[in-house]
């Protein structure tokens, strides 16, 4: 089964653009779950340009599905996650000034650092996932860090798929086979959409979870949030 975790960063972006509390991120998280979303993802960034650290604490009591907090494990982020106790933390090596996440971890260079941070989260019963490019060496390196899961960075797949290049899924298929063999759980995310999700899901064996935000919220403008979530759930069904 592949779970749909809805990333609500963009709801916070919209709210922050006016300085008030519309739309209310807590209400949206409740509605996402009511509409069938199987998880809520947030990616608080140090400048709090969308999800604020306080949002994480406000969301914690209402997220009864699976709370996934993503981010670069700087001290402030580690403290936040340990306090909020989500079901999953996803570590992403994004620079502070990056518009959005734009690369996976070099799991070889950062092995010792990742090992230390991951063991701290695992000691606190928080499942760990690390964001990686679909490169076999990085998957092998991920095992060494002790992480429970990897999140495959799907930007390249999404941009190639939009150009009609379905072959772009191949490195993901190979890395998923390797991850399955090595006992790593597989998540995926970034730029997944109603257009490209079905082919990805059908291609990747053992895909446990996708986190989708930007496209899902954009699609909801035309189709409505409940309808869009239902469409994703249908496309993610095991055949
Ligand atoms: C980790 C990842 O893939 C990102 O898509 C991210 O979580 C989205 O963050 P922004 O909403 O800040 O672009
Ligand atoms: N981990 C990826 C995520 O949460 C959502 O990414 P996107 O759909 O906003 O690109």
UniProtKB/TrEMBL annotation:
NCBIfam families reported in the protein's UniProt record: pdxJ, PRK05265.1-3, PRK05265.1-4
Subunit structure: Homooctamer; tetramer of dimers.
Protein's gene: pdxJ
Record function comment: Catalyzes the complicated ring closure reaction between the two acyclic compounds 1-deoxy-D-xylulose-5-phosphate (DXP) and 3-amino-2-oxopropyl phosphate (1-amino-acetone-3-phosphate or AAP) to form pyridoxine 5'-phosphate (PNP) and inorganic phosphate.
Protein name: Pyridoxine 5'-phosphate synthase
Keyword presence, Cytoplasm: yes
MF GO annotations: pyridoxine 5'-phosphate synthase activity
Binding residues for 3-amino-2-oxopropyl phosphate: 7, 18, 191, 213-214
Matches recorded under HAMAP family: PdxJ
SUPFAM superfamilies recorded: Pyridoxine 5'-phosphate synthase
Transition state stabilizer, annotated site positions: 151
Pathway the protein contributes to: Cofactor biosynthesis; pyridoxine 5'-phosphate biosynthesis; pyridoxine 5'-phosphate from D-erythrose 4-phosphate: step 5/5
Record-annotated active site: 43, 70, 190
Residues that, per the record, bind 1-deoxy-D-xylulose 5-phosphate: 45, 50, 100
Top-level taxon of the source organism: Bacteria
Keyword vocabulary terms for this entry: Cytoplasm, Pyridoxine biosynthesis, Transferase
Record field: catalytic activity: 3-amino-2-oxopropyl phosphate + 1-deoxy-D-xylulose 5-phosphate = pyridoxine 5'-phosphate + phosphate + 2 H2O + H(+)
Source species of the chain: Salinimicrobium catena
Gene3D superfamilies per the UniProt record, alphabetical: Aldolase class I (3.20.20.70)
Compartments where located: Cytoplasm
EC number from the UniProt entry: 2.6.99.2
One Pfam family hit: PdxJ
GO cellular component annotations of the record: cytosol
């Amino acid at each position: 089964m592949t779970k749909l975790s809805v990333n609500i960063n963009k709801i916070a972006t919209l709210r922050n653009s006016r300085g008030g509390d519309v739309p209310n991120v807590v209400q949206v998280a409740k509605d996402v779950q009511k509409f069938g979303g199987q998880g809520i993802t947030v990616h608080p960034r140090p400048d709090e340009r969308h999800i604020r650290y306080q949002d994480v604490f406000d969301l914690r009591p209402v997220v009864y599905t699976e709370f996934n907090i993503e981010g670069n494990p700087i001290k402030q982020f580690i403290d936040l996650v340990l306090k909020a106790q989500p079901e999953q933390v996803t570590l992403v090596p994004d620079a502070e000034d990056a518009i959005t996440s734009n690369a996976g971890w070099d799991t070889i260079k950062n092995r010792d650092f990742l090992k230390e941070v991951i063991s701290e989260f695992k000691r606190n019963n928080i499942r760990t996932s690390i964001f990686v490019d679909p490169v076999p060496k990085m998957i092998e390196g991920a095992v060494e860090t002790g992480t429970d899961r990897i999140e495959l960075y799907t930007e390249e797949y999404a941009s190639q798929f939009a150009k009609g290049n379905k072959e772009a899924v191949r490195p993901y298929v190979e890395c998923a086979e390797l991850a399955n063999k090595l006992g790593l759980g597989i998540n995926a995310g970034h730029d997944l959409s109603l257009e490209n999700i079905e082919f990805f899901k059908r291609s990747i064996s053992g895909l446990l979870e996708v986190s989708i935000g930007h496209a899902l919220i954009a699609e909801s403008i035309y189709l409505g949030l409940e309808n869009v979530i239902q469409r994703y759930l249908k496309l993610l069904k095991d055949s």
